[in-house]
Design goal:
- The protein is mainly alpha-helical.
- It has one domain: Orthogonal Bundle (Helix Hairpins), CATH 1.10.287.70.
- 72% of the residues lie in helices and 3% in strands.
- It has a two-stranded antiparallel ribbon.
- The longest helix has 34 residues.
- It is globular.
Length: 232
């Protein structure tokens, strides 16, 4: 049975372009999913002794794509290079099978994460309808901020040992630093990890206040955009 000759055949190249277009239109949603996997699933896989190479590579790829969404800007080349360095560093880390970041990878992660967070905030706050991608972009910025502060806490502990006091014995590792970061940005205050040095306390205060201010400003902005859309 032959198809209708008046309907153009769907070639593989057209299918790939359509798939890429759908991904691009929902890139912030994909980034949100990979961030949740990295924050929530990776620690469990680590405890079970299961490798998390795909999760790290997916996160790195999605961060690079979001950075690429600002490719029309004059500084796009620098941003893309930093994002590419993060992807390469993440791949090397995954292949090495190390729990800690490689030598310079944490610097690339901080740079790439900050750029992705900036792109997400700009997408969330720019004029336009309050659609799903805007919501995901706002959530991406929040999660990226939590991860960034987690890396900063971890780097601070390495620079000034004893900056954090833990209920369990041992120093602060990266997963624990990320956990403490999200506890701080959500102002939960469990107390199992406590900042003990002045720099650590100052950074924790900055994250807690910044996180609450971001949520307040974000809600006000989204309500304004939603109201403006309904008034049209």
């Amino acid at each position: 049975m032959t198809g209708d000759p008046t309907v153009p055949a769907r070639t593989p190249s057209r299918g790939m372009r359509s798939l890429a277009d759908r991904y691009w239109r929902h890139r912030f949603a994909w980034l949100f999913g990979s961030l949740l996997l990295s924050v929530g699933v990776y620690p469990s896989l680590r405890v079970l002794g299961v490798g998390a190479i795909p999760i790290r590579l997916v996160l790195a790829t999605n961060v690079l794509i979001v950075i690429g969404s600002v490719a029309h800007e004059e500084t796009a080349r620098v941003k893309l290079l930093l994002g590419l360095a993060f992807v390469v560093g993440g791949a090397l880390q995954a292949m090495a099978g190390r729990l800690s970041l490689l030598g310079m990878t944490e610097n690339f992660w901080v740079a790439a994460g900050a750029l992705a967070a900036t792109a997400s905030v700009r997408r969330a706050m720019r004029p336009g309808p309050a659609d799903g991608e805007r919501i995901f972009a706002a959530l991406d910025a929040y999660l990226l901020a939590g991860l960034l502060f987690g890396v900063w806490y971890w780097m601070l502990e390495h620079a000034w040992p004893g900056s954090f006091r833990l209920a369990a014995e041992g120093g602060l590792d990266l997963p624990q630093a990320v956990y403490f970061s999200f506890v701080t940005i959500a102002t939960l205050g469990y107390g199992d990890i406590v900042p003990a040095s002045d720099p650590a306390r100052g950074l924790a205060i900055l994250e807690a206040i910044g996180g609450q201010m971001y949520v307040a400003v974000l809600i006000a902005r989204l309500v304004t955009l939603y109201s403006a859309g309904n008034d049209r």
